[in-house]
Amino acid sequence: MVDTIWLVYLGVSPFILAIIIVWHLGGAQEAYYRIARIPYFAMTVFGPDGSESFALLRYELIQRRSPPSFSYHGKMREIDDTNHAYHHGRPKWFFNYDDFHALPILHWNEKKRIDPSHLDAAWNDKFLEELARLGQKVPPLVTLLIVILVVSLIASMIGIASIYYSHDAYCALKPVNC
Predict the structure, then answer these.
(1) Are residues 95 and 21 in the same domain?
(2) β-strands 40-46, 90-96: how paired?
């Protein structure tokens, strides 16, 4: 029985290894492009409903005219080298659904580098967090906890006062026991 399990394991392991390699290369299409050394680029299109679609395309689709562009699903898109990001080392452009021009991407270069202390200060700033919560209703659990706290505080004060006055009343009635 153990021999059968090992034979099944050894028979399946090359396929599992191939699946893992393809997964690490970015999926079936990207693995094919990388292994076959086909030049490609990536693009993400943001739809009118806010969804996004991702596609890998060959460089052959780019028409070398002014401006360089390509057609994909009946829409023309412009290739702008100043507004590209990277996807696994290859250029990637972002487009709105009906827009010819690529969306601008923030580039980190030496001339316009943002001071990290500004980012840290903005990240740790509670003002924006509180501003985002402005106008929101307080959760009912918090209100319930506050009501329970107030009622228990009033009950404990009444209990302490009743213990004090009951001791005084008992001592007034039976001074021998006090």
Answers:
(1) no
(2) parallel
pLDDT in tens, 71-124: 988 889 998 887 788 888 889 999 988 888 888 876 555 556 667 787 778 777
Task: Look at residues 83, 81, 54 and name the one whose alpha carbon lies nearest to residue 68.
Answer: 81
Could you give the maximum distance between any two Cα atoms of the chain, in Å? 113
Residue 91 and residue 74 share a domain: yes
Distance (Å) of CA 55 to CA 79, 86, 109, 112, 143: 15, 13, 27, 31, 50
Half-sphere exposure of 17 (CA within 13 A, CB side): 6
Can you give the residue range of the structural domain that contains 171?
Answer: 137-178
Q: Is residue 70 a contact partner of residue 62, using CB atoms and an 8 Å limit?
A: yes
Predicted TM-score (pTM) of the model is 0.52
Both 54 and 108 in a single domain? yes
Q: Tell me how many degrees the CA angle 81-83-84 measures, rounded to the nearest 5.
A: 75
